[in-house]
Structure formats: structure tokens, C-alpha cells
Amino acid sequence: MCDNRRRTYCCVFVCLNNSSIPELSLFRLPIEQDRRLQWLHLIDREYLKNKSQPYHVVCEAHFHPEDIMKNSVRKLLKKIVCRV
Ligand SMILES: [Zn+2]
């Protein structure tokens, strides 16, 4: 079946997780430059550092479970550090 909805994919290499998985949280790259560079270095995507598209995301699979807070609506990061 063809699915034409636009999906947001995790930008970590080889990770195919995307926004079609309802229980999966996707976290946007930090706006703050230092943290953004830290994430991009960890995921080996430093070429994204000057791109400001908001849809570059990293899925929750790349974070320690203890770094993710859950409330009734969505999951939130306690620490803005990904581990990859
Ligand atoms: Zn991922």
C-alpha cells in the first residue's frame, strides 16, 4: 500500500526509525550551537551544522532511557546529550 504522508526520519546513519512509529519520540537537533555541534559530531553528520532545517531529528533509540522524561503528552530529554 502506498503511503504518501511525509515522514521525518532519524538522521543517524543506518537508523530507519521515523515519525510513522507512534510510540517513538524524535528529538530535534539543539538550536544552541555548541550542543548542536556535539550531537552532529556524535552522529557523524557535521555537514549539517550550517543547515537550519528544523526537521533534522534524532530518535529516542540513541539516548539513555534515564535521560528521557515522560509526561502524559510526550517524552522530554533531561540532558541534551545523545550517546549514539
Ligand atoms: Zn534513530
TrEMBL record:
Domain of life: Eukaryota
Keywords: DNA-binding, Metal-binding, Zinc, Zinc-finger
Entry keyword Metal-binding: yes
InterPro entries: THAP_Znf
GO molecular function, one term: DNA binding
Residue ranges of domain THAP-type in the record: 6-84
Coiled coil region boundaries: none
Name of this protein: (apollo) hypothetical protein
